[in-house]
Specification:
There is one protein chain. This protein is of the alpha/beta class and 259 residues long. It has a domain at 14-143 and 169-195 and 248-255: Rossmann fold (3-Layer(aba) Sandwich). It is built from nine helices and seven strands. It has helices at residues 14-20, 26-35, 53-60, 72-84, 120-130, 151-163, 179-183, 203-211, 223-237, and strands spanning 43-47, 64-69, 89-93, 106-112, 131-143, 189-202, 242-255. The protein has a seven-stranded mixed sheet.
Length: 259
């Protein structure tokens, strides 16, 4: 069983995840589609789909998307969101351990903030069997540049570290660089794409973002204490409770070298 998924760390936070998690701009998805030379109807696998942010974004561009996640709540949210947006997504219950050679084939396998929960070498090895020769793997994540406007993010990270519950130790290496795993796989031709956004945030939205993460409550017995401490620290930073977020949304597209 991989850490994080299927162990209950994401149970009970689906609503927060869906409402407060940082979304990937559609223009970033379009750049990945263009660089990967995808056409409408091409098969895309969203592995560890969560509430379907990537699955729905690719489906909106006409891809035949399979959304896969071991958490029933997350998979149900993906299906509901896809129906609400009028796109078709095939939902499959399972994690990286459930990838099988008979699946697909897929032109692209995508993962959004999920790769670090997996056995990365084993996942890439299995994807090599179900991704077409001209296809690839796209890994999505986000980062917060160290600019003054992101002072709230430093406050959040410091409090998460202070209040981190024991289950946080289950994370297998955390958010390490992708390159070592990719260069050891079949997908060694790498291209990076990114979009930087700037948006307003409130105390409530920052709290919601925190509670959408496995390393924060609701699993922590100190959930209420954490929420109070976070609100107080944020109000000290900005008494009016208004903040600006500068975030970089990143995709690493990995393909096989064409020899």
């Amino acid at each position: 069983m991989r850490p994080g998924h299927g162990t209950g760390l994401f149970q009970g936070i689906t609503a927060q995840y869906e409402r407060y998690r940082l979304a990937y701009p559609q223009r970033l998805i379009q750049r990945v589609v263009g660089l990967a030379e995808l056409e409408p109807g091409d098969a895309v696998l969203d592995l560890g789909c969560g509430t379907g942010m990537l699955a729905i974004a690719f489906a909106r561009l006409g891809m035949a998307v399979t959304a896969m996640d071991p958490e029933p709540e997350m998979l149900a949210a993906t299906q509901s969101a896809a129906a609400a947006q009028g796109v078709a997504v095939t939902a499959v219950a399972g994690g990286w351990e459930d990838i099988a050679p008979g699946m697909g084939p897929f032109r692209l396998a995508v993962m959004g903030r999920a790769f670090h929960w997996m056995d990365r070498a084993a996942t890439l090895a299995m994807l090599d069997k179900i991704v077409t020769p001209d296809g690839g793997v796209a890994l999505f994540h986000d980062a917060h540049p160290p600019v003054p406007e992101n002072g709230w993010f430093k406050v959040l990270c410091a409090l998460q570290k202070k209040y981190r519950h024991d289950r946080g130790a289950l994370r297998d290496g955390g958010h390490r660089r992708y390159e070592p795993f990719l260069f050891a796989s079949a997908f060694t031709r790498l291209d990076g794409l990114s979009v930087t956004i700037r948006q307003r945030l409130t105390v409530e939205e920052i709290q919601g973002r925190a509670f959408s993460m496995s390393r924060s409550a609701p699993h922590s017995a100190r959930q209420e204490e954490f929420a109070t401490a976070l609100a107080a620290a944020l109000r000290e930073l900005s008494p009016d409770g208004k903040f600006i977020e500068v975030a970089e949304l990143v995709a690493v597209l990995a393909r096989r070298e064409q020899i």
